[in-house]
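re: that complex we talked abt at group meeting.

here r the seqs, copy pasted straight from the sheet so there may be weird spacing, ignore it
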Amino acid sequence: MSETLQAFLQATIRTATPLALAALGEMLVERSGVIDIGLEGIILCGAFGALAGASLAGVAAGYVFAMVSGVLTAMVFGWFAIRLRGDQIIVGTAVNLLALGITGTLYRDLYGTAGAALRIPTSAPVMVPLLSRIPVVGAALFAQPPITYVLYALVPATWWWLYRTSAGLALRAVGERPEGAVVVGIDPSAVRWRALLAGGVLGGLAGGTLVLAQSGTFAEGMSAGRGFIAIAIVVLGRWHPAGVALAALFFGAVSALQFVLQAMGWALPYQLFLALPYLVTLVALARVSGRTAAPAALGTT
Amino acid sequence: MRRAVRTVALAIAAPAAVLFLLMAVGGHDAGAALRALWEGSFGSWYAFTSATLVRAIPLILAGLGVAVAFRAGVWNIGAEGQLLAGAAAAAVVALGSEGTLGSAALPLALAAGIVGGALWAGIAALLRERYGVLEVISTIMLNFIALYLVGYLVRGPLQEGTHIYPQSAPLAAAAQLPRMGAGSRLHWGLVAAVAAAPALWWWMSRTAAGFRLRAVGANADAAAMAGGIDVPRVRRDAFLLSGAFAGLAGAIQLTGVTFALYEDLSPGYGFTAIAVALLARLEPLAVVPAGVLFAALESGSLAMQRDAGIPSVTVSIVEGALILFALATWSRRPFSAMPVGRRAAEPA
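got the structure back, here u go
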């Protein structure tokens, strides 16, 4: 049983890590009043950047390339959605299509059809001394790739930045009342741009995690809807860093539930297991969605 | 008129330019690629009818669905899921009846598709109205659930007799849409798709219900206060209608093209339909040419992959670029004619 539990916890953290990274970034973007549906594309470009960087110069370069790719993708979104004030849903849809096409085409062009066999350096799990020896939860929480520890640090850091700095206050103000922010000398566009770039860094890291810490390779469209799930996680976490982290864990846990249920001998069809996280997320959204927690200016141009 | 000419010129020149650039960067023979693109889409009668028009049918129908939702300010991103739900419902009726329906099998299957798509959209509409769940998120979740649901059906209750392949048994001949002529895969679904566009146009521009829908999309607050319009109800109806169109697209794809239910029934028609509707600026009549254009691009891209070695996914870049071109060039304030229901007060 404890082995099953350990596998469950490990899978939970593994699924939650990229989702939480991407969702933290999207949370910042949404707190500034912008909804970036293009997150899916940012993650995908981050994943491709990670592949390119890692195959050139190792894991660290992979993460750098992932962040740069994520930021570049976010800039395309920003140009059309903030600079030209295009509708955010429409621009996001276009960015996702662009990302799918560009990464797919470049992948075939650069790595050929033998891409599946492409080996790139990956980041190995790092054991945290002492903590990783805690029974059951230790190995799951503290024998993870370094990026997971970065995430652990980012959650409180984001909270502190958002609620304890003037820049964080400005961000929240722009998301609630852009006209009011202008009165006190804040430029909403500049604030939104900064949030968007931060979202690009974090979304890119999420894509990098998929390649460098998990699969060790790239596949066309490998983001597989994680950007959309991350957007749901932001709502589920009520636009708060701790809430977002918990919501990501929750989604990860429901996804990992199949290990437990299978070990317990439940003979549910596999496809229903796969659908379960989405179903549970929908139900959870219905329970937490009220209009109060959402930034008032969300989605407005 | 000038805008129409410019639009058509843009819709042809922009993809060609983007593709040419990509080919040059990738070191491919751009001439051969564009030739393959043409050959595979408009180059021959067979390619035009069997590849382009066959693909245009679900794109037009689902595109009309997206257009009607977006016009009402309902952000239904779930056409793909609604399309699959429609196909699944049609398959249940067509296969479950085992020939007892006779010649009623086809119309009943199509009706089941319409109902299935509308019900699938109805879940998101209910979540929005009752619980305030943003439809952008719920419809995306429902896309995943629909895909896994079809995956379950074709491995469980609806699996073909030998239980080897993840697909349903083939439909009986009575439940299949007939072809329009010999020597082509084009089926009568085309008529439904092309007729639906003017019907929707007429409904939206000439009826009171259509007016209410446009009013809600243009300014929900004004529609409620000045017009006394029941905004939630109009939104829900638009959502259901949107799902019905996508569901019909799925049922027609099942009965006219695949003749069996399986997971890859739609190569993302529901997502491309969003691009189709946007390129058409949410005008029902413009959805038809926009649907044909995207169908031609996707058919041509397959020929490009086969004959010139260009990855077919390249066409996604063209689709994304088309949406952004449209957004950036059509007016000084991009999409100022778009629904503004979600916009806050215009900044001074």
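couple things i noticed - The two ends of chain B are 32 Å apart (CA to CA). Chain B touches chain A through 53 residues (CB under 8 Å).
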